[in-house]
Predict the 3D structure of the following.
Amino acid sequence: MSLNEKPFRFKDEDYKKYTLTAELSEKEEALFQNEKISELKEKYAVYSDRLGHGASACVVTFGCQMNARDSEKLSGVLAAAGFKLTDDEEADVVVYNTCTVRDNANQRVLGRLGHLHSLKDKAPQKKIILCGCMVQEPSVIEKIKKTYSFVDLIFGTHNVYKFPELLCRMFDSDEMLVDVWRSTGNIVEELPVIRKYPFKSGVNIMFGCDKFCTYCIVPYVRGRERSRASKEILEEVRSLAYDGVSEIMLLGQNVDSYGKNIPGEISFAQLLKETEKIEGIERIRFMTSHPRDMSDEVIDVIASSDKISRHLHLPVQAGSDKVLKAMNRGYTRADYMALVKRIKDKVKDIALTTDLIVGFPSETADDVKETIDLVNEVSYDNAFTFIFSPRRGTPAADMEMKMSGEEIKENFDLLLKAVQENARKNALKLTGTRGKALVEERDPHDESMVTGRLSNNYLVHFPGNKDLIGKYVTVELTENRGFYFYGRMV
Ligand code: SAM
Ligand code: SF4
Ligand code: F3S
């Protein structure tokens, strides 16, 4: 069996005891969950009465853009039911939308749960909800049931759309409720959403991942790759544009394989072209691209567009062919470098960023040298560097480690230094240039300044007032401060 055909680690039986709700068809679910929101409004009134004040809710997001988008849906449902949304975890209802990509993501959640427990001791009516990738693992569910029995509701990544129904059940129960599914074929997006920013939004174009990189838990906790119909995606973008959104980010673990599981569906390149045509959309981002699947057609679409951002996040993970093969990434260093060359040749002003892992089991210090060499050759504008974290059930978790923890740390530091030097060099080259920035917020450290994001994803702080928020302005970059700039409007 090839690595890409690896079955899920967990069988249906493993999830039977965690299944609480029944799966309906997509259409029925959309109707049913919206009905449940009406019921939830009544339960909200009763709960608020009991508390003696209008109940509040806080949604805390861990992990990636996919989770951030799910959190906007969770917030949308809570707000529609009447909850006052806040960032304060002293809120009456707290939702942790969790991540499990590396062990430290789990530890962060478990650590913070202790704090929530002490808050609940003082306010016993408080409700604590856990959802997202971490709780897709049966062993984690068991641990929470045993050690964190004060949690009121647990649900997974496949049934986020069941949130209204699950909230109703939670308010009717004194027991911890668990509803975690192994998988779903359903895509239900017709629920209320509260966007963090009124002028920009993520749009899911696909769910799950079929790549099975040997270190990665995402395919196990997010399920097999499923694309949304382009008609629905474009409808959502149109409605966002109508609502005043001008920047959208098309989201998926591997956007370049968009549409491949739907017969007759358009490609990602065509989806970009269609999105561009929508009136009101000024800037288009997407995340994440996979070097194995990125087509020349996509590069051509970026090159000929003045709406698609000049930023490409192209995770390479490692610079040595031996490690790339053991990771099951499906490309060689030469393939990756050839792709980078095609991109840079056609899109001269592109900013490239990447993800890198140090300490993959078969990796040696010489392999890390090859990664550092690749970082210098590509000269990334920025990179996320991670230390390999074994994830139970993934093939890499059973592989033998070549480097000691100390060696990994030393090599990690060397790699980070190379990343920072290249980033600084590139940022210095940009100093003195001009670009269009979308103003996102007031500068948190200085009321007289605002913060904008350039097409290449760099941030720029410049004098301006809050009326500029959500607008595009031309800014000259006057001074570089590492990963951001100071500038002035021109
Ligand atoms: N789908 C994207 C891709 O293929 O690059 C990103 C997915 S993952 C959410 C984000 C990053 O986490 C990966 O690019 C990888 O660098 C890192 N990552 C995933 N699993 C990891 C592990 N077990 N240990 C350390 N880093 C990991
Ligand atoms: Fe994980 Fe990305 Fe590989 Fe999918 S493509 S398995 S999400 S690293
Ligand atoms: Fe984490 Fe799940 Fe994203 S594991 S990185 S939140 S897909």
